[in-house]
Amino acid sequence: MRNMIKKSPWISIFNASSCNGCDLEVLALLTPKYDIERFGCVWKSSPRNADILIVTGPTNGQTKNRLKKIYSQMAPAKKVIALGTCGITGCVFRDYYNTRQKVDEVVPVDIYVPGCPPRPEAIINAVVKLLKKL
Ligand code: SF4
User: Fold this and answer.
1) How much distance in Å is there from the Cα of 86 to the middle of ligand 1?
2) Which of 53, 95, 111, 127 is the most exposed place for a label (fewest CB within 10 A)?
């Protein structure tokens, strides 16, 4: 089972309140140019089925508890990527009235990918690093 996860991890994304810039870079991974599926990655719409959860943006009043719940529903060996400077530090959303906490203050984060937004190559690099940890 562990070997299967390493060879074909299921990945999902959760937008905790990003501006969608980071999410668009994640979508670019599915295009022939970046083709993250060559590493065996499978995209799942439900984070419950995912081995790796990519979280973009800091949490807000609506998403903080949802992120906690989604993380608790993922199967063991789950890994989290905090994608983009907003999820890591709060960045431009830090002082917003409805911004709550950074991603790692809500769920454990295994790898940080800074940038605004991060390049697709940086996201691929993070996923490949996580494959070694799974
Ligand atoms: S890091 Fe930049 S691109 Fe990503 S959510 Fe924040 S402002 Fe948007």
Assistant:
1) 6
2) 95
CA count, 13 A, side-chain hemisphere, 116:
12
Q: Which domains does the chain have, with CATH numbers?
A: 2-133 (3.40.50.12280)
Measured in Å, residue 18 CA sits from the centre of ligand 1 at: 6
Question: How far is 4 from 100, CA to CA, in rounded Å?
Answer: 36
Query: pLDDT tens across 94-127, in order?
Result: 888 989 899 999 999 999 999 999 999 999 999 9
pLDDT at position 94 is 87
Distances (CA, A) of 59 to 80, 90, 99: 14, 9, 6
User: Best of 85, 102, 113 to mutate for ligand 1, by most ligand atoms within 8 A of CB?
Assistant: 85
User: Ligand 1 center to residue 83 CA distance, Å?
Assistant: 9
The answer to whether the pTM exceeds 0.85 is yes
Q: Which residues make Cβ contacts (< 8 Å) with residue 68, sequence separation at least 6?
A: 106, 107
17-52 residues labelled b (16+ CB within 10 A) or e (exposed): bbbeebbebbebbeeeebebeeeebeebeebeebbb
